[in-house]
Amino acid sequence: MTLDKSNTTNSESSESMIIMEVTPPLAVLKLNNGRFNVLTQELRQEIRKCLAMLERENHVRAVIITGHPNFCSGADINDFEKRSDPIVAQQHCRNGHSMTISLLTSRFPIIAAIEGHCLGGGLELALACDFRVVAENSTIGFPEIRRGVFPGTGGLAMASRLLGTAQAHKMAVFGDTYSASDERASGIIDYCVLPGRALEVASKKAQEISNQPAGSVERIKRLINHKTCRELGEYLAQEEKEYISCFQLNDAKVGFQSFFRKESPEWTHR
After folding, report:
1. Residue 46: C-alpha distances to residues 20, 33, 55, 58, 141 (Å)
2. 171-196 tens-digit pLDDT
3. How do beta strands 26-31 and 177-179 pair?
4. Does residue 181 or residue 122 have the better pLDDT?
5. Averaged confidence pLDDT in the chain
6. Are strands 9-10 and 18-23 parallel, antiparallel or unpaired?
7. 5 pLDDT above the threshold of 60
8. Report field, pTM of the whole predicted structure over 0.85
9. DSSP for 69-133?
């Protein structure tokens, strides 16, 4: 993947999980992993690689992450069975954490432009961005509880930060999904827009940001996220332990098996 500093760069190929377009001072990362943009382990790694590349490009001052027709429908359910192995669960958890930290600590503001589904790991990805522009017919939520597990990429901490502990608790425990126009999701959404306009509005906001003095913008982001990043380290260490142990539970197996069988899960509570 290379950057052309004077023209739009498009990393397009039939195999690319991310299409990166750079039109200084903006960069757009388009998730390109099928219709539902499933957040595989490889896609998490690619997001980190793209951000690392853009960090070295001083002419980039704001980044947009988007996906079409769905922003991101969540983690790859095919990975769930593998996580019954504690080593695999740990690897997957740490990979997700590394992606979250790279988003929070990037020098440039990142805007999530959301259309369609933004669920589970996809919502965690969006929550780690600085701003969220969301089409009003989008679907938002943490449905992991229905699979016998929980959001394991820092999402509970970040949802609590934006929604408050009580509403984040409800979202995760009940596994409900909300439309962008639902008041219960309002703390997550910075700009609610008409369907099909999320990227357009995000681009305008990113341009506004890029017109501000870059040095001050970078320092504002560091200060805004300073407390979160400091506390997140302790939280992620605890989350890793809970994540590994959760995938050892029988109900985690029940959850993904019922998903593939298109059946309602019958929980064993163990």
Report:
1. 11, 11, 14, 20, 24
2. 999 999 999 989 999 999 999 999 99
3. unpaired
4. 122
5. 93
6. antiparallel
7. no
8. yes
9. S-SB--B-GGGTGGGGSHHHHHHHHHHHHHHHHHHHH-SS-EEEEE-SEEETHHHHHHHTSSEEE
Distances (CA, A) of 84 to 78, 80, 88, 150: 12, 7, 8, 14
In whole angstroms, give the CA distance from residue 121 to residue 127. 10
Secondary structure element (H or E) that encloses residue 20, with its range = strand 18-23
Cis check: omega of the bond before 69, within 30 degrees of 0: yes
Q: For residues 229 and 97, give the distance between their C-alpha atoms in angstroms, rounded to a whole number.
A: 12
Backbone angles phi, psi at 25, to 5 degrees: -95, 15
Return the sign of the alpha-carbon dihedral for residues 145, 150, 154, 160: positive
197 class by beta-carbon count within 10 Å (0-12 exposed, 13-18 middle, 19+ buried) = middle
In angstroms, the CA 112 to CA 63 distance is: 9
C-alpha dihedral sign at 168, 174, 177, 178: negative
Neighbours of 75 (CB within 10 A): 28
- Cis peptide bond prior to 24, omega within 30° of 0: no
In order of their start, the domains of the chain are 9-195+209-261 (3.90.226.10)
